[in-house]
Amino acid sequence: MNLKKLLVVFACIVLSAGAFAADKLAVAEPVGKGGVPAADIEAFWGILESSIQSDEYTLVSRGALKQMMEEIGLTTESDLVSLNSRQKARLGEIEGVKYILVSEIGKFGTRLNCTLRILDATTGEIDQARTANLRVKDLDELADQIEATIQKLLSDDKALHRSAILAPVIKVSAPAYLSEDFNVRLESAMLEKGLRLQNLQSVSKILKKNDMDNLGELEPKMYVKVGKLLEVEMLIQAAITRFEIEKIAYNVAETGASGFRYIGNLEGSVHIISAQTGEMLGSVPFEERVDFRTIPISTRRDWTVDDYGKYLIRTIIPQKIVPGIMKSPAFKDKTETKADAEGKKAPADKPAPKTSGLIGLDELLKGTPATGKKPENVWE
User: Fold this and answer.
1) In 105-125, which positions are buried (b, 16+ CB within 10 angstroms) versus exposed (e)?
2) Domain-embedded: residue 7
3) Burial label, 164 (beta-carbon count in 10 A; 0-12, 13-18, 19+)
4) CA–CA separation, 307 vs 311, rounded Å?
5) Domain CATH code at residue 215
6) pLDDT by 10s per residue, the chain, length 380
7) Contact 166, 235 (CB under 8 A)
8) Which domain range does residue 234 map to?
9) Is residue 4 situated within a structural domain?
């Protein structure tokens, strides 16, 4: 057998393996409501089938699905959304079919309302995270939107477990850069921990498009609405109650030296919210202080107050805030890294390394005569 024939045979084997590996997907006959004509339901069924553009699924024909359902005693597809326990068990007997796309189309006034759901044929359960609702003026508009919607529904399960970081709620006087810098550093540190996140720019774009770009602390139903827009499982939002750089005067009696030192303070909490229910899954408080004397004078000689503030953000978030978030039950089994696991195995008698730049104010002032003046917050 020459090389060309060998390549052809190998290609056939690979393609065959890919076909066998693909999950089987069936598209059930749409359920019509509100006086939708049978012709429109038939047309919509065809649109659904032609919109399956995924190499991960093999489309089951209508006739094959009907025969399979008849074999297990299900004669109608209109009740797939509300199966009883016995029917769910029988549905799992459908050979080779992993998912069934079920849909409803109804007429409300002059518009069409369409609901799409993915049913797991192995369990008979509807995956609530894989549900979509479309409201359009006619079938033509529905056809324009349906392919992208189905692609999202059929996306990898892991994509459904993303989180989104919302703009922080800032409750104090603070510089303009705080909100953006805080979230950029938070995103970077959480991605390094292995968390799946909706891109910050995408979040901002989507919320702005829907006139929701100025979010504060919301009611549960609004968090649910935001979650649906962003297509995420959880929402992460910080509330910042203190952000300041204290300018503290000092006077060393022994040497006569005097001047100022700077202390950075960042306090608040990070809320982790379910995008399905709007309920808070966890709240991680933080109250941190950075002593800028640990930074070489040569580095900070020409620093402005904003330079100190930005250093505060990039120091505290990865070292203190994100590790606290990752310990939350919401992320318990999702984010532990190899480094974290190795850290747990460290000898008990070995002292933990001291984090550079993080000390308490009492320790800072200990043994140093002060002027008696109240520390100055440079943003007040």
Assistant:
1) beeeeeebbbbbbbbbbeebe
2) no
3) buried
4) 6
5) 3.40.50.10610
6) 454 444 444 444 334 443 334 678 888 888 888 888 889 888 988 888 888 866 667 888 888 888 887 777 776 655 576 677 777 777 777 767 888 888 899 888 788 889 998 888 878 788 776 788 888 888 888 888 888 888 777 765 545 578 999 999 999 999 999 999 999 999 999 999 888 888 898 888 888 888 887 778 788 889 999 988 888 889 999 999 999 999 888 887 777 777 788 999 999 999 999 998 999 999 999 999 999 988 998 898 899 999 999 999 999 999 999 999 998 888 865 544 444 444 444 444 444 444 433 333 334 344 344 444 545 555 54
7) yes
8) 161-377
9) no
* Contact between 195 and 334 (Cβ < 8 Å): yes
Residues 209 and 295 in one domain: yes
187 and 249 fall within a common domain: yes
φ, ψ at 344 (rounded to 5°): -70, -25
Tell me which residue of 296, 308, 163 sits closest to 227, measured CA to CA: 163
3-state secondary structure of 267: strand
Structure tokens at 161: 């477990």
Using CA atoms, how far apart are residues 99 and 101, in angstroms rounded to an integer? 7
The count of structural domains within the chain is 2
* Domain contains 132: yes
